[in-house]
Amino acid sequence: MRIAVDLNRCQGYAQCVFLAPGVFELHGDEALMYTPAPPADQRERVLRAAAACPVQAIVTGEPVGSEGPYVR
Ligand code: SF4
User: Fold this and answer.
1) Is 26 helix (H, G, I), strand (E, B) or coil?
2) Which residue has the higher pLDDT, 69 or 3?
3) Which end of the chain has less neighbouring CB within 10 Å, N or C?
């Protein structure tokens, strides 16, 4: 799967970090780092994190071909 986070929208609430700590990481107060192509075993965690984000900043999908665009 692939993920993208709209960092303009992200408010650093860290729900995603809590739910999928292997994929999302906060550096400092509000700088979110994430793995854009997380391993398959993280899928459920990532979906939960995306659903929990209070500002819907996390978009998940599968790549079409070797690169985007994504299909939700
Ligand atoms: S849950 Fe949403 S707002 Fe919070 S850090 Fe993650 S992406 Fe940002």
Assistant:
1) strand
2) 3
3) C
